[in-house]
DNA sequence: CTGAAAGCGCTTACAG
DNA sequence: CTGAAAGCGCTTACAG
């Protein structure tokens, strides 16, 4: 019998070196003779050796684990395809850089526990916080405890924080300008929740567009949703009596709900009410009619967010980074642009 | 200055006990005087102490981390609401039992790495494997390395494996019998991928139903999908020339695609073609028409899967467990049952 | 470029 | 019910 559990000691023995040297090759320390490195590597490979994560974590104070924290104010929202795409991006970056991902869905009743795990149990080297409320307790905690972290979505107050985001405000403005340019006169909006920065910024973009065209915003044409399909549905119903001829909806999922409400009310899209969404979820291209929407690179945001966090972890005292990813207005049928062009060509 | 990092030593000092005792109260060892336990607890609370996870992992050989492995043959599928629901269930169980969740999306090119992390890096105490192919390499690995694991979905070959599942076969059979009972004569099916056990079992259930009614299965009415919306769409198109009057689709997401194909072909649902899905995803109740479907408790499967894994971890040599969760046929409009009943009542 | 040794922060027989 | 001490499997100054 060789032994119980395969450790660095066995590798050292078989490679004819000390444990220090084995450790150095594991950690890619350049101070190892090429031939030695080679020898150690091949022994590790042969024995299928993987250094113990807990031991490394304890000795080095680094776990090579990234935490992903998603505050779960509304559990149902987590089913939005937004999160799978984000998670895939993060996971892809982790795979590529030999990190792993720890997932915490921070349910309110366990938030305290989650925070403790993050800041004082040393389980992770840093965290990515997605979809947080503007006054989230997790953000406060990692800030004061100096845990490296990156936000998906900017923070409304702290400007010295690293985040990756899109320009919600400008992209929303452009989407609304697109509607105005098509000739719609009563452009409404269903905003996201206004205790989330994305909701806030997209609403600001909506107002920017009106102001740019000298239109006075009508508060009756503005309603707040919560990013869920159900809220898109009920909010649209509530907006209908105001007779909007177009609407900018702050997420595709809510847009789906809004379309359902319009259909039930016997309104044709885009003829009676035109609609533009936000996200470009997979289903947007397949809805009836296909949804005009603002595409944002969610997978990419996850990937870049994870890589940025890794940089923050390796460079102590790194300066905060702000990464803004590009968006794109994807024009399909729900905004009426195609219909109009066809009419024009026929005329 | 008190110190650098808060450890068990500081707690011991302030509580006037040894490190051993502090460790005992952390681990809920009953052999501690109630008063002592009380004192230690209050010191920990006061200092906001959280034992270091790596140190515990190294010393005890337990990490209190569960791995969730999702083989990612088709990355796009991960956006299916199935996974968020499953993850939420697992996460809820972990929160409740003071475990954490490690997430590995096993992309093919990193599968080897994932396996190594699981079996020899000691990062997790056990793993949950969801949505695996029937011959998945990860399953092989955890089996031979004796890592505690539970499958979401039974295994076609190994019967000594712990899993949680629904009775896919019987529930599919009942769904198809429902259609036959409504009088449909040419009942088709879009199956799931046949290299996944769920796909296999639901197809078997479809055939069971036909056989039970003495109907010979027509191979032209059977087509294989891959659980994606797109495959539901294209497969439905391919089935259309066979003129089915009803169809059982092995997932709601595919059913959505099938409905899109029917709509484009000018077919009315359920009048021209009735349809029954599987899963009861949130969108099923809101589709047009609302989808009749087999509800399965996905969140619950995640929760129970995680709890079962915890049991496996604490009882060494535990016997394999098989947990079958109940399903329910949810009758809405797409199967035509309501329409028919109304007609009958009018007559 | 390499090795001997201390140390990371816990847990757990062992002894009492 | 409690404490002293060995040990978990690595990393990392330090010395050479």
- Biggest sheet statistics of chain A: 6 strands, parallel
Order of helices and strands of chain A: HHHHEHEHEHEEHEHEHEHEEHEEH
Mean pLDDT of chain A: 93
Name the helicity range of chain A.
40-55%
Radius of gyration of chain A, in Å, reads 25 Å
Overall outline of chain A? elongated
Strand residues, percent of chain A: 15-25%
Q: How many angstroms does the end-to-end distance of chain A come to? A: 89 Å
> What is the β-strand count of chain A?
12
Helix count of chain A, per DSSP?
Answer: 13
CATH superfamily name of the largest domain in chain A?
Response regulator
Strand order of the largest sheet of chain A: 2-1-3-4-5-11
| Most extensive interface between two protein chains, with residue counts | A-B, 57 and 56 residues
In CATH, the topology of the largest domain in chain A is named: Rossmann fold
> Low-confidence segments of chain A, ≥5 residues, pLDDT <50?
none
Q: Can you tell me the CATH class of the largest domain in chain A?
A: Alpha Beta
Oligomer: homodimer
CATH architecture of the largest domain in chain A: 3-Layer(aba) Sandwich
Supply the number of structural domains of chain A: 3
């Amino acid at each position: 019998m060789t032994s119980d559990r395969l450790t660095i000691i066995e590798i050292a023995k078989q490679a004819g070196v000390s444990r220090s040297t084995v450790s150095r090759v594991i950690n890619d320390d350049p101070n190892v003779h090429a031939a030695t490195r080679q020898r150690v590597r091949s022994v590790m490979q042969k024995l299928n050796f993987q250094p113990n994560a807990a031991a490394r974590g304890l000795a080095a104070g680094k776990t090579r684990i990234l935490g992903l924290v998603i505050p779960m104010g509304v559990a149902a929202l987590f089913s939005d395809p937004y999160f799978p795409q984000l998670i895939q991006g993060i996971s892809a970056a982790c795979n590529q850089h030999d990190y792993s991902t720890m997932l915490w869905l921070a349910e309110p009743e366990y938030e305290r526990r989650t925070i403790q795990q993050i800041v004082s149990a040393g389980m992770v080297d840093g965290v990515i916080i997605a979809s947080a409320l503007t006054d989230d307790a997790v953000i406060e905690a990692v800030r004061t405890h100096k845990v490296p972290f990156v936000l998906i979505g900017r923070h409304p107050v702290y400007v010295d924080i690293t985040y990756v985001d899109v320009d919600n405000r400008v992209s929303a403005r452009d989407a609304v300008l697109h509607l105005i340019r098509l000739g719609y006169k009563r452009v409404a909006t269903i905003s996201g929740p206004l205790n989330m920065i994305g909701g806030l910024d997209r609403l600001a973009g909506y107002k920017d567009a009106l102001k740019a065209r000298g239109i006075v915003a009508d508060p009756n044409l503005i309603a707040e949703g919560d990013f869920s399909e159900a809220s898109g549905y009920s909010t649209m119903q509530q907006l209908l009596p105001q007779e909007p001829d177009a609407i900018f909806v702050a997420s595709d999922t809510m847009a789906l709900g809004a379309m359902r409400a319009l259909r039930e009310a016997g309104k044709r899209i885009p003829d009676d009410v035109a609609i533009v969404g936000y996200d470009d979820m997979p289903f947007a291209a397949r809805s009836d009619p296909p949804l005009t929407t603002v595409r944002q690179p969610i997978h990419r945001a996850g990937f870049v967010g994870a890589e940025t966090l890794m940089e923050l972890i390796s460079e102590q005292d790194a300066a905060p980074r702000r990464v803004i990813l590009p968006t794109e207005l994807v024009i399909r049928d729900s905004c009426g642009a195609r219909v109009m062009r066809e009419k024009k060509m026929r005329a």
